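Subject: Putative glutamate--cysteine ligase 2 structure
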Amino acid sequence: MMVPPIPFARSPKPTLGVEWEIALVDPETRDLAPKAEEVIDLVKAAHPEVHLEKEFLQNTVELVTGVHETVPAAIGELAHDLACVKEAAETLGLRLWASGSHPFSDFRKNPISAKMTYAEIINRTRYWGQQMLIWGIHVHVGISHEDRVWPIINAMMTRYPHLLALTASSPGWDGIDTGYASNRTMLYQQLPTAGMPYQFTSWADWESYMNDQGISGVINHTGSMHFDIRPAAKWGTIEVRVSDATSNLRELAAVVALTHCLVVHYDRMLDRGEELPILQPWHVAENKWRAARYGLEALVITTRDTDERWVTQELAELVDDLSPLAEELGCLNELHLVREILERGAGYQRQRRIHQRTGDWRNVIDKTCDELEELVPDA
């Protein structure tokens, strides 16, 4: 049987695009507010240059950048877009809030957007699909040829716990502290099209797999697989979807810089004819769980021989090792913000401290909203 080809729109440069999901909250109740369509319409009327997307939930606005060559350029566009969304939200008496999940909102009371594919997802996935009160970051990096895509994705999966631990910000769920740094990660993988990618070795393997998913009906309701890292053939990119949504643009800049540098680093290794790292699938799965459970306190598996190191040690060394490349790519300052997160603590740690001190998740929402306004990149 002939397998239909999946054309990959090759990117001559390692260009960059970012998607950031943020939510609307009522400042009185601190619960989610299903007003995204109204906010988007207000922004569209006042600032037609801003690219926003409606998301799965009516409480969510997704900020989407254009194609950029540097992290500062992408973050600059997001800063402008965020200011426009904030202006519209305030007109409606709402605040902006971003994290991996909301700590107490009832998923049964949050309506989904009016889009047939979303209704089909709920119809198919039922209980688990209805619970998707979760928000993330998607980073696209341009790749020059489809033959490079899966070796780089497999290598990036060895850095899964690093990217997740930095951004983990979803400890609360349904009013309780789950004990996890990223409950979002555990929720999202319940969907049949989500989770870790398989370790494909070639683009032909990917084409064959996607053909099977189409024939068997797995992707009929979505049109695609929502792997944690996946090819975006239409754009000629690798899309990294590991991270929880950060509460602020400063930390977003850090994880985007780290992601950009890692992808380019592995791409350069291929240029030099070097073998890219890959871990056994069971080690990758264990690292994902450890990062979701323990965040920056995770001990992660670093080699095929099952050597282990603290993820904070790994992150500190990554910043040092990648700094020359970051300087070349124009994101050295943003990469060094990784160290700031290690010092301040990740989002889940800050949220948990507030909840343990006050016993009230509403205080967590207030502080997280404040961070969106206060923790901004340097001018």
